[in-house]
Amino acid sequence: MQKFFLDEDIEKKTLDEKSGRKVLAHTRDLMACHLWFDKGAVGTPHTHPHTQIAYIISGQFEFTVSGETHTVGAGDSVLIPSGELHGTVCLEKGELIDIFTPEREDFLG
Protein backbone atom coordinates (compact mmCIF):
# COMPACT_ATOMS: atom_id res chain seq x y z
CA MET A 1 0.00 0.00 0.00
CA GLN A 2 1.33 3.41 -0.99
CA LYS A 3 1.95 5.54 2.12
CA PHE A 4 3.43 8.74 0.74
CA PHE A 5 1.84 10.89 -1.97
CA LEU A 6 4.15 13.72 -3.00
CA ASP A 7 2.62 16.85 -4.48
CA GLU A 8 5.15 16.95 -7.33
CA ASP A 9 3.99 13.48 -8.46
CA ILE A 10 0.25 14.19 -8.36
CA GLU A 11 -1.49 15.05 -11.62
CA LYS A 12 -3.44 18.31 -11.67
CA LYS A 13 -6.76 17.86 -13.47
CA THR A 14 -8.64 20.81 -14.96
CA LEU A 15 -12.38 20.31 -14.41
CA ASP A 16 -13.48 23.36 -16.39
CA GLU A 17 -12.26 26.93 -17.00
CA LYS A 18 -12.93 27.85 -13.35
CA SER A 19 -11.96 24.75 -11.32
CA GLY A 20 -9.45 21.96 -10.89
CA ARG A 21 -8.63 18.98 -8.70
CA LYS A 22 -5.76 16.86 -7.42
CA VAL A 23 -6.42 13.41 -5.95
CA LEU A 24 -4.26 13.27 -2.83
CA ALA A 25 -3.69 10.24 -0.60
CA HIS A 26 -6.18 7.41 -1.06
CA THR A 27 -6.98 3.78 -0.43
CA ARG A 28 -10.05 1.78 -1.47
CA ASP A 29 -11.75 2.96 1.75
CA LEU A 30 -10.76 6.63 1.89
CA MET A 31 -9.77 9.47 -0.45
CA ALA A 32 -8.67 13.09 -0.04
CA CYS A 33 -8.79 15.62 -2.90
CA HIS A 34 -7.57 19.21 -3.17
CA LEU A 35 -9.83 21.44 -5.26
CA TRP A 36 -9.58 25.06 -6.32
CA PHE A 37 -12.25 27.33 -7.75
CA ASP A 38 -12.37 30.77 -9.31
CA LYS A 39 -15.23 33.07 -8.34
CA GLY A 40 -18.41 31.97 -10.10
CA ALA A 41 -17.41 28.32 -10.49
CA VAL A 42 -20.31 25.91 -10.00
CA GLY A 43 -20.28 22.41 -8.60
CA THR A 44 -23.43 21.19 -10.37
CA PRO A 45 -25.91 19.46 -8.02
CA HIS A 46 -25.32 15.71 -8.00
CA THR A 47 -25.43 12.60 -5.82
CA HIS A 48 -23.03 9.72 -5.23
CA PRO A 49 -22.90 6.76 -2.86
CA HIS A 50 -19.88 8.15 -1.00
CA THR A 51 -20.00 10.02 2.29
CA GLN A 52 -18.14 13.30 1.81
CA ILE A 53 -16.65 16.01 3.98
CA ALA A 54 -15.58 19.32 2.44
CA TYR A 55 -13.10 21.40 4.46
CA ILE A 56 -12.78 24.98 3.24
CA ILE A 57 -9.16 26.18 3.12
CA SER A 58 -9.87 29.64 1.67
CA GLY A 59 -12.52 31.61 -0.15
CA GLN A 60 -16.28 31.55 0.29
CA PHE A 61 -18.77 29.00 -1.03
CA GLU A 62 -22.52 28.57 -1.03
CA PHE A 63 -23.23 24.88 -0.45
CA THR A 64 -26.64 23.27 -0.81
CA VAL A 65 -27.16 19.81 0.70
CA SER A 66 -30.59 18.21 0.38
CA GLY A 67 -32.26 21.60 -0.10
CA GLU A 68 -30.49 23.29 2.85
CA THR A 69 -28.18 26.16 1.80
CA HIS A 70 -25.39 27.79 3.81
CA THR A 71 -22.49 30.08 3.03
CA VAL A 72 -19.19 28.71 4.33
CA GLY A 73 -15.63 30.04 4.43
CA ALA A 74 -12.11 29.26 5.62
CA GLY A 75 -12.09 26.80 8.50
CA ASP A 76 -15.68 25.62 7.95
CA SER A 77 -16.68 22.07 7.01
CA VAL A 78 -19.66 20.52 5.23
CA LEU A 79 -20.84 16.93 5.80
CA ILE A 80 -22.59 15.35 2.82
CA PRO A 81 -24.20 12.00 3.65
CA SER A 82 -24.23 9.20 1.09
CA GLY A 83 -26.82 9.67 -1.64
CA GLU A 84 -27.84 13.25 -0.75
CA LEU A 85 -28.21 15.83 -3.52
CA HIS A 86 -25.57 18.55 -3.15
CA GLY A 87 -23.79 21.29 -5.06
CA THR A 88 -21.85 24.50 -4.57
CA VAL A 89 -21.24 27.96 -6.03
CA CYS A 90 -17.91 29.68 -5.42
CA LEU A 91 -18.64 33.20 -4.17
CA GLU A 92 -14.98 34.18 -3.65
CA LYS A 93 -11.96 32.43 -5.20
CA GLY A 94 -10.97 29.58 -2.94
CA GLU A 95 -9.71 26.11 -2.20
CA LEU A 96 -11.05 23.14 -0.31
CA ILE A 97 -10.20 19.58 0.67
CA ASP A 98 -12.81 16.91 -0.09
CA ILE A 99 -12.65 13.63 1.80
CA PHE A 100 -14.62 10.63 0.56
CA THR A 101 -15.37 7.19 1.91
CA PRO A 102 -15.00 4.91 0.10
CA GLU A 103 -12.64 6.29 -2.56
CA ARG A 104 -14.08 7.80 -5.75
CA GLU A 105 -12.93 5.30 -8.35
CA ASP A 106 -14.31 7.65 -11.02
CA PHE A 107 -11.63 10.20 -10.02
CA LEU A 108 -8.77 7.77 -10.75
CA GLY A 109 -7.20 7.21 -14.14
Q: Could you walk me through the main structural features you see in this protein, from its secondary elements to its overall organization?
A:
There is one protein chain. A hairpin with a 2-residue loop joins strand 1 (12-16) and strand 2. Strands 1, 2, 3, 4, 5, 6, 7 and 8 form an eight-stranded antiparallel β-sheet that branches. The chain has no helices and eight strands. The protein has strands at residues 12-16, 19-26, 31-37, 42-46, 51-65, 68-73, 77-80, 86-101. It is mainly β. It is 0% helix and 61% strand. The protein has one domain (30-107): Jelly Rolls.
Sum this structure up briefly.
With 109 residues, the chain is mainly β. Helices cover 0% and strands 61% of the residues.
* Strand-residue proportion: over 45%
Low-confidence stretches: none
CATH superfamily: Jelly Rolls
Task: Give the CA-based shape.
Answer: globular
Kindly provide the radius of gyration, computed on alpha-carbon positions and rounded to a whole number of angstroms.
Answer: 13 Å
Percent of residues in helices? under 10%
Intertermini distance? 17 Å
* Top CATH class: Mainly Beta
Main sheet, how many strands, which sense, barrel?
A: 8 strands, antiparallel
Written as H for each helix and E for each strand, in order along the chain, the element string is EEEEEEEE
Annotation, overall tally of beta strands:
8
Give the CATH topology: Jelly Rolls
How many structural domains does the protein architecture include? 1
Task: Give short descriptive properties of this protein.
109 residues; mainly beta; Jelly Rolls
